[in-house]
Amino acid sequence: MKDAPAGHAAPYDEPDLLRDQFRQLLRYRLLIVCGIVLGLAGGGWLGLTANETYVATAEITVRTPTADPFAGGTVDRVAMGSERRTAVSDIVAQRAAEALGQPDSFPQLKRGLQVTNPPNTEVLRFAYSADDPHLAAERANAFVQAYLDNRQADADATIAAQVAALESQRAPQLERRDELEDELAGLLDGSAAYDSALSDLTTVTGTIADLNAAIARLTALDTTGGRVITEAGPPGSPSGPGLPLLLALGYVVGIGLGLLAAWVRLVFDPTVRSPGDVTRALHAPVLGVLPRPGRGDHPGEQLLADGRLAEEYRSVAFRLAYDESFAQRRRLLVVAPRGSIETPLAAAVNLTAAFAEMGMDALLVEADLRTPTLTDQLRHADGVRPGWAGSPGGHGGDWPGVRVPIDAGESGIFDLVPGRRVRNVPRALTSPPATQLISHADTKGAVVVVLAPAVLSYADAIALTDRVDGVLVVCDPSEVHRDDLTRVRELVVGAGGILLGAVLHSWGSGTDRREGEDGADTPREAGRDRRAVADRQAPRPVPGQGPRHRQPPPAGTGREPQGGNSETMGLRILDPGELSDHEGHTDHRSRKP
């Protein structure tokens, strides 16, 4: 077999690892779907329950003053940060409330206002939000006008204060001028006193003229606070995302939530997530993945598989046959990690049939001595069970008992040592007869397949490991934990065994077999299986050995199958008389090992 040696998991490239992790996330489709549904529900709820909001916008340019009345002639730019804060102040809000006829509600009016200043401009943008478009436009324009009026009132107040200061300075000069004029009227023209009074009058008159000029400049200033460049009008549609956009956003957010929930579930999921996890936990390759049964079918309905399932079993058997570790000993222990062994039982039967098809002298040993079920299933399949094939009284009642020849249709014939309940299971498994039975694999062209209980349920499989060597684990990845597989590997390797690989399936525990009311298969299933077996009545030759043919039972021997379900399982228990005399297998099949 060309697989990677045991103990070394196949390396993963980074793209392959990412793809594997993404596929693992998709295992939790329900969580992802729930996240999407939650996101869509949230987006729809916001879109349907949120009140429609209309935003009306107005823009103004703040006018730069032509002269600074406090500095006396320097031109400066407007501090837009201060103007924006002034626009949202209580003073402007109160002016707007008075203009709207709601003087006591200015704190509530401020809540819908937002003032911004576009970069590198002297523009203020007033945006007002309201439930009604006309109300939003009215209030936006009211705040714009209130801001302009407030700025103009501030300018007027500043000019009035400056004019009043200049007039207060001019009043004594006017009085002095009147006094000098009266004094000049009583002085002789050309005298020194007249000239001095005239000079003082000229100075006072100049000062008065300067003050009058300053007052004239101040009173002539344009105190308009700015100019409206965009008047607010009723918006035609509500602002904010609509229902379609909210649903799209909810869908995207829902996918994120679903993937996050799936990732958290993946991190804390103790079960095996992929065949790669099985390989890494067991340090052994996955030899096969059994296909899912078709709708309406169940893997427990027929022991001998057909179709794609049979081909997968044959593929596993061929891979084992060409594995060097298995070819040297030809002993195979089929086990499950824990739980039911119904699927390992079916795998053991089909692998034994596949080995028989290869021309090997195949022997199937049911080493489940606690709850053996294969005998009952074969009795149910055969309808009439020959007395020699399972009578404990005729052979002492010990295990192992006789070898029962099993007809597997086209695959040929293999021997079966059925399990039976014993008082001391560990002693029976390690007894000399059991060791001699397993040593049948030392015969040229022979192979022994042993079915044991679950490794982590009983120590029976570990007790057989030093005799059987090669171990095949059959498990359902969705029901087994990684720690379980790691524990199986430690137990098998610690007992001196070799893990040949694993066979995966997705059938669950297999405890809910569909049966008729009396425990038998339904007539439809029985008829279908009888037709399938009837088509396989003539087994084809197998390589390496001459074909083992069945002869029809003599008339009147009472060996004819009775009932309508004689070949329900695809297998049939043979009477030694039905085997060809030239095969030479009759004696060893009917004696104890």
Automatic annotation (TrEMBL):
Gene3D superfamilies: P-loop containing nucleotide triphosphate hydrolases. InterPro entries: Bact_polysacc_biosynth/exp, P-loop_NTPase. This is Lipopolysaccharide biosynthesis protein. The keyword Transmembrane helix applies. Residues 508-593 are annotated as: Disordered. PANTHER family: CAPSULAR EXOPOLYSACCHARIDE FAMILY, TYROSINE-PROTEIN KINASE. Keywords: Membrane, Transmembrane, Transmembrane helix. Residues 511-538 have a biased composition (Basic and acidic residues). The chain crosses the membrane at residues 28-48, 243-264.
